[in-house]
Amino acid sequence: MGAGRPLLVITAGCSGIMFAEFLQYLFSGMTIGATYALVGLGFAIIYNASHVINFAQGEFVMIGGMATVFLIHIGLPLPVAILGAVALAVVTGLALEKLAVEPARNADVVTLIIITIGASIFLRGLAQVLWGKEFFALPAFSGNDPIHLGGATLLPQSLWVLGITLAIVVALAWFFKYTLIGKAILATACNADAAKMMGINTQFILFISFGLSALLGAVAGIIVAPITLTSYDVGIMLGLKGFVAAVLGGLGSAVGAIVGGLLLGIIEAMAAGYISSDYKDAVPFVIILLILFFLPSGLFGARGTERV
Amino acid sequence: MLAKLTHPRIGGLLILSLIIALLPLALPNNYYYDVAIKIGINAIVVVGLNLLIGYAGQISLGHGGFFGLGAYTSGILTAVYGWPPLLALLTGVAVVGVLSFIVARPILRLTGHYLAMATLGLGIIISIVISNEDWLTGGPDGMYVEPFTLLGWELYGEKPWYWVIGALLVISVWMAMNIVDSPAGRALRAVHGSEVAAQVVGVDTTGYKVLLFVVSAVFASVMGSLFAHYSGFITPAQAGFFHSIELVTMVVLGGMASTYGALVGAVLLTVLPQLLSGFEDFEMVIFGLILMLTLIFMPKGLVPTLTHKLKDWRGGRS
After folding, report:
1. CB contact (8 A) between residue A104 and residue B287
2. Does pLDDT of A138 surpass 70?
3. pLDDT digits (tens, 9 = 90+) for A159-208
4. Among B30, B12, B124, B116, CA closest to B68
5. Out of A44-48, A156-160, B306-310, which region has the weakest mean confidence (pLDDT)?
6. Is residue A308 very low, low, confident or very high in pLDDT (cuts 50, 70, 90)?
7. Nearest Cβ partner of B252 from A53, A114, A286?
8. Which residue on chain A is closest to B247 by alpha carbon?
9. Is residue A275 part of a domain?
10. What DSSP designation does A51 have?
11. pTM of the prediction?
């Protein structure tokens, strides 16, 4: 067994590189996963308030990134541009609810879903007219010097993404637990009819939900734009993957959407690294089909009987 | 006799056949024939999809994928492997039928819009595979497809295709109406009304929903195959997400659970992009706006809303 020792050394060296590679995929997966989580959270909030799957969610992501680029272009400093872009997305979200969803509130859920699809085509078209079809880069919030960690490199922007996502999750948890509107949103999600009887204006809750979802989407679009670039049609894939994140965690579950988003990002990065980058975009959809087959309520969905 | 003619099913089919037979008088050249053929192809897919959306209350966001799968199965088997077109078409039907059954069976047991998610995923996977496997499919650049031949007879040119698609449209509308009026169709209307109540009286709701899903997917696959032969050139866009959305939109815009509504939806959404292409950059904005406004003001879709209005007006007069 004389050959055993050097072999062991080689494998140890190899596993060091392999670990660094793994860590690298983990970092990039968590970064992109955090944005899926925020988008997924937006889907969950609107779904809870109305059972509508808002396909315009991806457009809030696009508005966030593109409006920030545009506002910097006209000379505003980054923080002001970010605030302006978030405000624009929130106003768009509120307007969408007020002008398109609320007038059709008695319609079939299917019809409402198609209305949000119409809205997403409209907003994407508007962005294309206003801002063109090119790809745009947003400057990183604090430089591009990579941080070395365990043989892998981490962009400072990744820390911004993870930090801001964490801050938003904590703020949302506080909002739902301690504010009157937050509690009313939870009550509506739990049982809309009962909430209505207790005097909660569920239409207003849906209005607020659209604003909140737009805010989450816009933030996701802004923080990820320095890493992935942004363009008028960036909302299609990001929106769809956020939807997958929401279903992965059990549609309507906030914790589920966050864990689902992170998991999705990590699996996607691993699959792109270890299997095939050509099929990177297919990975979330393969996962969701498997989940629907084997864990139909998602990872965190409630398992229970349906009441009539 | 007159009673039979005014029966909505037979009367409607007669009117449809009449329109198809007389339309060529108003079609000045091959461009208009081409638009009419595309309307017909979309209409047949949508008549199938309407069964699923209107009667099983489920949305599919992946019918573009089934359309594309049919198109590419036909394209590849005839061009690369030299199969006869009809055999290639039937192979496409078998592939799509089995695939849609495998996907639908577990997912349609669930309540809620999970079929939308699953079909969305399936459609996107299909279009990514078609784009990536360029050694077989030509990748994003698309591929050429041979003309349709049957027993040595070649189907070529706009006018023969017009009559073939027209005949198929009448047949598929007749089939859809039969399905709607069959015991399965009645059971499905119960599903759309109250699923739990239907289950309680012993309706196998999942089984019927799966049946409709498979039927609608097969409609899409057949039309995908025929479209491939007709146009002679296919791209991954035929299998893409936007195509799936267009198809669902045709159903909802025209009117869910109304076969003629689906036809109207197919006509409008096939003609609209042709009209809007002059607006170039504003095409998407206007398309999205029309879609939203129609559904905000006519949430039940064009045909049900207008027939309702017509009945009201007649009722008010008498």
Report:
1. no
2. yes
3. 999 999 999 999 998 998 888 888 888 888 877 788 888 888 888 888 99
4. B124
5. B306-310
6. very low
7. A114
8. A114
9. no
10. S
11. 0.85
User: Domain containing B51 — which CATH number?
Assistant: 1.10.3470
Q: Which domain holds residue B183?
A: 32-274+282-298
Q: Do A282 and B289 touch (CB under 8 A)?
A: no
The answer to whether residues B221 and B96 touch, using CB atoms and an 8 Å cutoff, is yes
pLDDT value of position A4: 41
User: Do B122 and A124 count as a contact with CB atoms less than 8 A apart?
Assistant: no
- Pick B132's closest partner by Cβ from A53, A108, A279: A279
C-beta atoms of A106 and B299 within 8 A: yes
Judge whether B20 and B218 are in contact, CB under 8 Å: no
Interface test with A, best of B256, B285, B298 (most A CBs within 10 A): B285
List the domain range (segments joined by +) for residue A155.
27-234
Domains in chain A, number? 1
> Is residue B313 situated within a structural domain?
no
A14 in any annotated domain = no
Would you say residue A3 has pLDDT above 50? no
The answer to whether residues B33 and B164 touch, using CB atoms and an 8 Å cutoff, is no
Number of domains in chain B: 1
Could you give the angle at which helices B302-317 and B259-276 cross, rounded to 10 degrees? 120
Instruction: Please enumerate in sequence order all residues whose Cβ is within 8 A of that of A302, keeping only pairs 6 or more positions apart, or say none.
Output: A250, A253
Looking at residue B195, its pLDDT comes to 65
Asked if B284 lies within 8 A of A282 by C-beta distance, the reply is no
Spell out, as residue ranges, where chain B has pLDDT lower than 70: 1-9, 111-112, 190-202, 316-318
Report the gap between the CA of A285 and the closest CA in chain B (Å). 5
Instruction: Assess contact for B60 and B115: CB atoms under 8 A.
Output: yes
Calculate how close chain B gets to A151, using CA atoms only, in Å: 32
The distance of A290 to chain B (nearest Cα, Å) reads 9
Please tell me the predicted confidence (pLDDT) of residue A152: 82
Q: Name chain A contacts of B59, Cβ cutoff 8 Å.
A: 110, 113
Cα–Cα dist A195/A186, whole Å: 9
CB contact under 8 A, B109 and A296: yes
B232-to-B49, B78, B148, B164, B228 alpha-carbon distances in Å: 25, 12, 9, 16, 6
For residue A1, the model assigns a pLDDT of 38
Which member of A113, A284, A293 has the closest CB to residue B106?
A: A293
> A214-261: per-residue pLDDT in tens?
999 999 999 999 988 899 888 888 888 998 898 888 777 888 899 999
Classify the complex by whether its ipTM is higher than 0.95, answering yes or no. Answer: no
Interchain contact, A289 vs B118, CB within 8 Å = yes
Residue B184 inside a domain? The answer is yes
Across all residues in chain A, what is the average pLDDT?
85
